[in-house]
Write a structure and sequence with these properties.
alpha+beta; 166 residues; 3 helices; 16% helix; binds zinc ion; 2 domains; two-stranded antiparallel sheet
């Protein structure tokens, strides 16, 4: 969605709110498409004392295989992002700040939201905090029960104790 923001820029106190469903179902990340359902995006642009700020709220369902057991898991995530919009950057230094430059008063909201979300998506992803993973021997998913393998799981803390009492 393109936002025409000239009116907001030119009058103090002006604000514009929009909401949309952003479809990123085709976007591939690490070989799968984690955003199968549309992302609910709400954005508010406000001119407060001449400073134009943008607040974005995004709600999405992230679906990906668990890093430990491989089970496909869907997790709802919600993010909020804040930016300051300017027509031109005052100096080169402003480059590292969270300023977004829109010389023609037009903001490509989808592009910005996509970039924001990509930075936030989880790098490590588990189906649950205490996922037990797969048995290294038979590949059984240990979240569903034990297998019959006799696997010695060595705990580094216990190894230290063993050394002490030798
Ligand atoms: Zn898992
Ligand atoms: Zn096993």
């Amino acid at each position: 969605m393109l936002l025409e923001l000239k009116k907001v820029f030119l009058s103090e106190g002006e604000c514009l709110t929009v909401s949309e469903d952003l479809d990123l179902s085709e976007m591939e990340l690490n070989g799968c498409c984690p955003l199968k359902t549309p992302i609910k995006v709400e954005a508010a642009v406000k001119n407060r004392a001449g400073v134009v700020s943008l607040a974005i709220n995004a709600e999405l369902d992230y679906s990906a295989p668990c890093d430990r057991c491989g089970e496909e898991t869907i997790t709802p995530l919600s993010y909020s992002f804040d930016h300051i919009l300017v027509v031109s950057l005052a100096s080169e230094d402003d480059d590292d700040c969270d300023y977004i430059e829109i010389p023609d008063y037009t903001l490509d909201l989808d592009e910005l939201v996509t970039a924001d979300i990509l930075l936030e998506l989880p790098v490590k992803f588990l189906c649950r905090e205490d996922c037990k993973g797969l048995c290294p021997q038979c590949g059984e998913n240990l979240n569903y029960g034990k297998c019959d393998c006799d696997v010695q799981i060595s705990d580094p803390r216990l190894e230290v104790l063993k050394d002490l009492f030798q």
